[in-house]
Design brief:
Blueprint lengths: L4 E11 L3 E18 L5 E19 L4 E14 L2 E16 L4 E15 L11 E9 L5 E7 L27 H6 L2 E10 L2 E8 H8 L9 E9 L2 E11 L2 E10 L5
Antiparallel strand pairs: 1-2, 2-3, 3-4, 4-5, 5-6, 6-7, 7-8, 8-9, 9-10, 10-11, 11-12, 12-13
């Protein structure tokens, strides 16, 4: 994670009494890499980055059902290779304010490349997700469970402890591991409307990184949020690898309160 920077900005506004729209810009800069030839001669350096700009709209279909859509124009530049794509996300949410129960279904990355990196056209990483959350009636806690990657049940993992000469160095299939690789869980502590603490666990992230030296905290994430009059501050930290921990900071300004 060293040298990797990600960030973004969004402006949103109400759309009559039942909806809202927003414009979004995001980037991921993966830093500077050393360019080498096939025989390991150093030729120089190059950069790698992804940029996405888009627009989103959400609308209350009923008092408890809301639908939304986001369109992203995506640009990627990896050394001298560039690609352009258009991706669309669609979502539907049911929320009961009386019980603080929420149920959502989301389809991410519908669409495709408009410009290929090279000769081969690649598909976007479509991801179907279903999530629910529920607060306790008499305690300041909210629990959430999200099912991810629902269109792809199994992923092969390479086990470097097994020699490639043995003929098969892939991790043996395990139903329980495959099942939990599709589940993300979280707990929020909400003592009042102006502060929260959160912790989450993503077993797939742990499984992705454990063969490469991930530590005990790989897959865990934590964060907090504070509301101060006209703005919110949110921060989170996640552990991916012994050599890489991410820190994210977000600030939300309510311009109409200035």
């Amino acid at each position: 994670m060293s040298g990797v920077n990600v960030g973004g900005a969004m402006y949103s506004h109400e759309l009559n009494d039942r909806g809202a729209w927003a414009v979004i810009a995001r980037f991921a800069d993966y830093g500077k890499f050393t360019e080498t030839s096939a025989d390991n001669q150093i030729l120089g350096t190059f950069n790698v980055k992804d940029i996405a700009v888009g627009a989103t709209i959400g609308y209350d279909i009923t008092d408890r059902l809301r639908g939304g859509a986001t369109a992203n124009f995506i640009y990627s530049a990896y050394e001298s290779y560039t690609s352009i794509a258009l991706g669309v996300n669609l979502g539907l949410n049911y929320y009961n304010p009386d019980t603080d129960f929420s149920l959502s279904i989301v389809g991410n990355n519908l669409g495709g490349q408009l410009k290929k990196f090279a000769e081969q056209r690649e598909s976007l990483p479509f991801d179907l997700q279903v999530g629910l959350s529920k607060s306790l009636a008499h305690a300041p806690f909210r629990f959430s469970v999200t099912a991810i990657k629902l269109t792809s049940w199994k992923k092969d993992y390479i086990d470097n402890s097994i020699s490639e000469n043995s003929g098969d160095n892939k991790e043996k299939s395990n139903f329980a591991k495959d099942l939990f690789s599709h589940v993300v869980v979280g707990i929020d502590y909400l003592p009042n409307d102006n502060f929260y603490l959160a912790v989450g666990y993503n077993y797939k992230k742990r499984r992705d990184f454990e063969k490469g030296g991930g530590g005990f905290l790989t897959g865990f994430s934590g964060g907090f949020g504070i509301n101060i009059r006209m703005f919110d501050i949110n921060a989170s930290i996640a552990r991916y690898h012994r050599a890489g921990t991410s820190f994210m900071l977000g600030v939300n300004l309510q311009l109409d309160k200035f």
